[in-house]
Amino acid sequence: MLSPAFLIVVILLITIGLFLYGRWRHDIVAVSALLMCSFFGLISPKDTFMGFSHPAVVTVACILILSYALQQTGVVDALAHRVLPKKGSSLLALLALTALGAFLSGFMNNVGALALLMPVSLQMAARHQLAPGQVLMPLAFGTILGGLTTLIGTPSNLIVSSFRAQALGENYGMFDFSPVGISVALIGVLFISLVGWRLIPVRERAGKDSFDTGAYLTEARVPTDSKAIGMRLSEVQASLDANDGQILGLIRKEIRLHAPNPALSLVAGDVLLIEADPATLAKNLDTLGLVFNEDKAPPEETEEDTPKPSTSPEARSTDSNGKDKKDKNKGSYSNELSELVILPSSSLMGRSAADLRLRSLYRINLLAISRQGTRSRTRLRKTPLRAGDVLLLQGASENVTDFASAGGCAPLASRPLRVPDRRNMLLAGGIMMLSVCLAAFGILSAALSFMLGVLLLLLLNVIAPRNVYKAVDWSVVVLLAALIPVAQAMESTGAAGNIAKFLLDYVAQGHTIAALVLMMVATMLISDLMNNAATAAVMSPVAIGTAQQLGVNPDTFLMAVAIGASCAFLTPIGHQNNTLILGPGGFRFGDYWRMGLPLDLLIVSVTIPLLLFFWPL
User: Fold this and answer.
1) CA dihedral 42, 21, 348, 281 (to 10 degrees)
2) Long-range interactions of 371-375: CB distance < 8 A, separation 24+
3) What is the distance between the alpha carbons of residues 337 and 392, in angstroms, rounded to a whole number?
4) Cα(237)–Cα(287) distance, rounded to whole angstroms?
5) Most confident segment among 402-411, 427-436, 522-531
6) Mutual orientation of helices 495-506 and 532-550 as an angle, nearest 10°?
7) Which band of pLDDT confidence, cut at 50, 70 and 90, is reported for residue 259?
8) How confident is the model at residue 318 (pLDDT cuts 50, 70, 90)?
9) How far is residue 576's CA from residue 584's CA, in Å, rounded to a whole number?
């Protein structure tokens, strides 16, 4: 019969493999691992779902809600407007932007901090004649580094703290991470702003007032008066070659041809699937007399498209305003173009424009998709969307804004500074400070402190109750809740101790410092390939086991895991912020290590002495 330790290791390896495979979402894989552990008796039935009531999970959910309040009330916008320099050198601007992103990430969700600062960063890139990627990557890495500074800076810190409570009987305090975290973040921000940004590959911008979003995939229709009628595909391709365009397929009478015969002649109504750079996209179409296939006014809603009345209070409220909203939107069709990037937590992922009914619900058209590094050969309106995709939309700005808010997208154009409700802005900032102080001084636990903050937001009407659940990234909550019992099973079955003994005997050769370096580097490498919270959950039991084998302070090794889990700088898939800038920065998969690898080496060389000083063995 197989031992429990062996079974949990096998399940863990399968889980990591599925994380890397990427076919299913991380939360689905985590729940599958949890159920497998329960099925094989590695976790008792009464403890299977204990993760959903775990203080770390509750704290993460509350932090997401408080971060949402800071975003929506305009606190972040006002801070950015005051802190970021309007004049001065590009070096000073980049340093201020990266430092601001790091500061915000210490107290709010780092994805939200990045999304709010992205339009500002793109405007800054244009002002200082920099490639967008040279500003976006420093900002993304800065927001990741900022998460190292406090207990609530990143979910992985909360996970490490929960394992510390199990091993030593006490959680980490709010600012226990700060001595090492602030030092590492400060050195990292200085490296990024002074040296690192120069290592980032420079991608050509889409134009003087725009930015590189990679190659757009779009559908071009042959109208009845087009000069392309009668032209062979080979002739069309020759014309596109002059502007770096490429034909990927042909759609004729709803029949899709992935590799059409070059000798085939075009007829009116044909649709060409074209890949082209944004700067030359319009020129390609104009040269051949083609038009965007989706470039037409959205149809009026039919009775079938109109939602039926509901008896719920919220629905009645919506219905009472429905007529006004419809009247407002009627005739609001616009040729205005907007670009949005899909956030990692977006509800749009896996769905297509056809699924979303963009025309009937939002009166906007999807004209093109930019997905750096991949090429879709499906119909544009049927292309499943992914995190980091850049959407080129046509429609009134207010309609695009509504869609972005509902779907979880971030604008890539600078927006005017909102005039915030001063009362709500002060309340949101004050409630966040109160929650941090309550947790920092040990008056309440972190979970209770931030739950109290959420309650105050609702009681004082800072945010609407219906937005509370929208603010939470439930995939992260489920991921953490599922992996915490699995990680605890590693410890209870003895698997963590066995792994630690193997690493000490055969890799570190019993040397404590070597084991500490190995723990941090291994955590960094794993975090580059899968979610940082999942990495922390997997490596924390191993860190505790290693410290116990050596008879040294577990805090030193747990802090190494906390730092390593957040330092995912080598790939676009290691951290959500890296994924978010992939499309807007025009990056390729292999671009991240150019600045990420030197940064990782610097962090390891700085962190180890700091750990030995602040958390001696």
Assistant:
1) 170
2) 371/214, 371/217, 371/583, 372/213, 372/214, 372/215, 372/582, 372/583, 372/586, 372/587, 372/588, 373/214, 373/582, 373/588, 373/589, 375/217, 375/248, 375/275
3) 7
4) 12
5) 427-436
6) 70
7) low
8) very low
9) 14
What is the rounded end-to-end Cα distance, in angstroms, of the chain?
A: 39
| Closest C-alpha among 596, 536, 486 to residue 49 | 486
Q: Name the DSSP letter for residue 522.
A: H
One-letter identity of residue 66: L
Is the model more confident about 539 or about 357?
539
Show the tokens assigned to 396: 């009134």
- State both tokens at 459: 């009681």
Residue type at position 415? R
Alpha-carbon distance of 555 to 614, in angstroms, equals 10
Give the pLDDT mean for 510-532.
87
CA 160 to chain CA centroid, nearest Å: 21
User: Does 558 score more than 50 pLDDT?
Assistant: yes
Query: What is the spatial distance between Cα 164 and Cα 76, in angstroms, rounded to a whole number?
Result: 33
Is residue 230 classed as helix, strand or coil in its secondary structure? coil
**CA 304, CA 313: separation in Å to the nearest integer?**
23
Q: What is the pTM of this model?
A: 0.69
pLDDT band for position 420 (cuts 50, 70, 90): low
Which residues are 221's β-sheet partners? 271, 291
- Rounded Cα–Cα distance for residues 617 and 615 (Å): 7
Do 157 and 164 form a contact (C-beta atoms < 8 A)? Answer: no
Give me the phi and psi of 23, to 5 degrees please: -70, -35
Tell me the C-alpha distance between 167 and 492, whole Å. Answer: 12
Q: Which residues of 356-371 are buried (b: 16+ CB within 10 A; e: fewer)?
A: bebbebbbbbbbbbbb
Sign of CA dihedral 78, 83, 89, 92: negative
SS3 337: strand
